[in-house]
Amino acid sequence: xxxxxxxxxRGCVREACLLSxxxxxxxxxxxxxxxxxxxxxxxxxxxxxxxxLRSLCNEFAExxxxxxxxxVRKGQARRNHGCQPHAVGRAGSIVADHSG
Length: 100
What we know:
Blueprint: H1 2-38, H2 41-47, H3 49-64, H4 84-99
Helix pairs in contact: 2-3, 3-4
C-alpha cells in the first residue's frame, strides 16, 4: 500500500525533471544558434576577426556580469584564424560555468 501511494509522487518528480531538462536543452540550443549566427564567416570577412571577437567578449561580459579584457597583439588583427572564434566561445562557456 505504501508503494502505490508513492508512485504518483515519483511520476511528478520525473515529469518535473524532464520539463527542466527540456528547458535547459532549449536554452542551450538557442545559445548555440546565437553564437553560430554571430560568428558566421561572412561577418568575419566584413568586420574582421578582432572586431567579431571583441563583440563576442562584450556580449559575454554583459550577459554573465563579468569583467572581460580583450586585447589583440599588433599584426594579429588582420589574420583570420577560423578556429579562434569557436575557441573563444567555448572558453567563455567554461568560465561562465565555473564562475558562479
